[in-house]
Amino acid sequence: MTVAKDPRYARYLKMVQVGVPVMAIKNKMVQEGLDPKLLDTPDAPVPDAVKKKTLDHDDDSDDGSESGQQAL
Question: Collapsing DSSP states into helix, strand and coil, what is residue 35?
Fold first, then answer.
């Protein structure tokens, strides 16, 4: 998924289109935990999408270990 198609970033790209100062947009992105550099590259792939898939897979394996810890 590209930055422009990710709903988390699409709203900020729309702000640029309507004339909101870029520095203000980037500051808001930092406050919300997003990478402001991606505002300059809307066609770039979203790095979080790759991390999310990896984290989702890791969460599945953690579920089994948590139930084992509760039994002890």
Answer: coil
pTM of the model: 0.61
Burial class (CB in 10 A: 0-12, 13-18, 19+), 3: buried
* Nearest in space to 38 (alpha carbons), one of 23, 20, 18, 29: 29
pLDDT tens for each residue of 4-47: 999 999 999 999 999 999 999 999 999 999 999 999 998 989 88
Domain ranges of the chain: 3-71
Rounded to whole angstroms, the Cα distance separating 34 from 32 reads 6
Q: Give 41's contacts (C-beta < 8 A, 6+ positions apart).
A: 3
